[in-house]
Amino acid sequence: xxxxxxxxxxxxxxxxxxxxxxxxxxxxxxxxxxxxxxxxxxxxxxxxxxxxxxxxxxxxxxxxxxxxxxxxxxxxxxxxxxxxxxxxxxxxxxxxxxxxxxxxxxxxxxxxxxxxxxxxxxxxxxxxxxxxxxxxxxxxxxxxxxxxxxxxxxxxxxxxxxxxxxxxxxxxxxxxxxxxxxxxxxxxxxxxxxxxxxxxxxxxxxxxxxxxxxxxxxxxxxxxxxxxxxxxxxxxxxxxxxxxxxxxxxxxxxxxxxxxxxxxxxxxxxxxxxxxxxxxxxxxxxxxxxxxxxxxxxxxxxx
Length: 303
What we know:
By secondary structure, the protein is an all-alpha fold. Helices cover 73% and strands 2% of the residues. It is built from 10 helices and 2 strands. It has a two-stranded antiparallel sheet with strand order 1-2. Helix 4 packs across helix 6 (119-175). The protein is elongated. It starts with a helix and ends with a helix.
């Protein structure tokens, strides 16, 4: 029976429908890759912008450099220790007034013998906050470098996934199987080495095990995932079945998904911190511009 005629649909329209369906299917397959590429480009742009912002305003940097040259080593060491204790508070979003009060209390405790009081303590506190911001920036640069390394590792994984998919396609074509048949044969199989796999198959899969190392930022105390070392794909081997490669492909995709989630969480936390830093440093810069020369006399006396 001619279904096209009985349904009132012309052969031309029917063919167009098929073509449209194929195009939409191809677009659906390519959508995740395109989305990943867009996100990767967006992150690269954000990192470049953030890195350019990790610079103290000129008046603040000049005052800080002057103080570091003018102070005796013992006094500078005390200020640096106090600044490091305040950096996590700035990163967590504490407002400038709160951090200033904590700095002033720290100065009272450390430099009580220097006779600092009132405006003197307040002015030196701003110097400590500038030092704390600079210390925080060092940790932020470290995490940005790790994000870049993770992005490179993810790209390497994506390249390997595409290569492995090509290998699988070649094997299934030789055996006369379709990707649907292969998926049905391997459905429900556990990740890793399938039961009954040969030693070669086992080595091909086991060699892909990757551990996600974690580290702590030295100052801010954030835990973050370090970029993994991506081992190369096992060389092509006719003794490795398409099923084993399919299992390996699943492992790679799972690892990539996990890395994407960790990267997004780290990037979100970094973005929030950069927003807080921007507001903090703007207020700090405006106040330090108004500070008089009395700081110069007091700083030289800190020991």
